[in-house]
UniProtKB/TrEMBL annotation:
<comment type="pathway">
    <text>Amino-acid degradation; L-phenylalanine degradation; acetoacetate and fumarate from L-phenylalanine: step 5/6.</text>
</comment>
<dbReference type="GO" id="GO:0016034">
    <property type="term" value="F:maleylacetoacetate isomerase activity"/>
</dbReference>
<keyword id="KW-0828">Tyrosine catabolism</keyword>
<feature type="domain" description="GST N-terminal">
    <location>
        <begin position="15"/>
        <end position="98"/>
    </location>
</feature>
<dbReference type="GO" id="GO:0006572">
    <property type="term" value="P:L-tyrosine catabolic process"/>
</dbReference>
<dbReference type="InterPro" id="IPR010987">
    <property type="entry name" value="Glutathione-S-Trfase_C-like"/>
</dbReference>
<feature type="domain" description="GST C-terminal">
    <location>
        <begin position="105"/>
        <end position="226"/>
    </location>
</feature>
<keyword id="KW-0585">Phenylalanine catabolism</keyword>
<protein>
    <recommendedName>
        <fullName>maleylacetoacetate isomerase</fullName>
        <ecNumber>5.2.1.2</ecNumber>
    </recommendedName>
</protein>
<dbReference type="InterPro" id="IPR036249">
    <property type="entry name" value="Thioredoxin-like_sf"/>
</dbReference>
<dbReference type="InterPro" id="IPR040079">
    <property type="entry name" value="Glutathione_S-Trfase"/>
</dbReference>
<dbReference type="InterPro" id="IPR034333">
    <property type="entry name" value="GST_Zeta_N"/>
</dbReference>
<dbReference type="InterPro" id="IPR004045">
    <property type="entry name" value="Glutathione_S-Trfase_N"/>
</dbReference>
<dbReference type="InterPro" id="IPR034330">
    <property type="entry name" value="GST_Zeta_C"/>
</dbReference>
<feature type="region of interest" description="Disordered">
    <location>
        <begin position="215"/>
        <end position="234"/>
    </location>
</feature>
<dbReference type="InterPro" id="IPR005955">
    <property type="entry name" value="GST_Zeta"/>
</dbReference>
<dbReference type="GO" id="GO:0006749">
    <property type="term" value="P:glutathione metabolic process"/>
</dbReference>
Length: 234
């Protein structure tokens, strides 16, 4: 508890973290969940990815992240990018604050990282807006996304059958769960049939009932459009 007290005092003298985010960015959603689980207050700076060519390509944002990608988190005098390193940084610097994002057991940590990367590297990138915009006109976006999500979910469901409990890895909420929910949200958006993936659907549904997941969901973010708008359907 001494560490917690020192950390709170340290953060009280620091400027509030700034999260550059877009409501529908899966990677940004992960970081929003992690910040909520850690109880970290932050300033939300929306970046409109749906503008032409997209605010992430502006000179102003390029100074924040030269890769022109979301999210970016300014915290502790650093500018961090890439969602999984951000989540691990939050756990490494604030391990005793809020909920843990990684198990203490090294073997379980390895499993959490494996499941996280199956989503982060193996499934989600194929639905990135930067990829979808370059699909040929005769290729259905839904069919494209369904193919890659189904391919990834088949493997993920098999892996979860070995290790899942209440959450992805036993009964400990972790980075794997943080990655899972945004990907399931994407699957629903692209009308993926979830019936072959009962474990994925059960775990995700349970997680989405938690306050930290509800208040970080895309539809309740300040930059989320009204239902039925063209931007929402891009």
């Amino acid at each position: 508890m001494i560490f917690y007290h020192v950390l709170v005092c340290f953060e009280s003298g620091m400027s509030k973290p700034i999260l550059y985010s877009c409501y529908r960015s899966s990677a940004s959603y992960r970081v929003r969940i992690a910040l909520a689980l850690k109880g970290i207050d932050y300033e939300y700076r929306p970046i409109n990815m749906f503008a032409e060519p997209g605010e992430q390509f502006s000179e102003e944002f390029r100074k924040v992240n030269p890769k022109c990608e979301l999210p970016a988190l300014q915290i502790d005098g650093l500018t961090l990018t890439q969602s999984l390193p951000i989540i691990e940084y939050l756990e490494e610097t604030r391990g005793q604050v809020g909920r843990p994002l990684l198990p203490k057991d090294p073997a379980k940590r390895a499993v959490v990282r494996k499941l996280s990367e199956m989503i982060n590297s193996g499934i989600q990138p194929m639905q990135n807006l930067s990829v979808m915009r370059y699909l040929p006109p005769d290729v259905s976006r839904d069919q494209w996304a369904q193919h890659w999500i189904n391919r990834g979910f088949q493997a993920l469901e098999d892996e979860l059958a070995k290790v899942a409990g209440k959450f992805c890895v036993a009964d400990e909420l972790s980075m794997a769960d943080i990655c899972l929910v945004p990907q399931v949200v994407n699957a629903h958006r692209f009308h993926v049939d979830m019936s072959p993936y009962p474990l994925i659907e059960r775990i995700s549904s349970s997680l989405r009932e938690l306050d930290e997941f509800r208040r970080t969901a895309p539809e309740v973010q300040p930059d989320a459009p009204q239902r039925g708008s063209r931007t929402q359907n891009l």
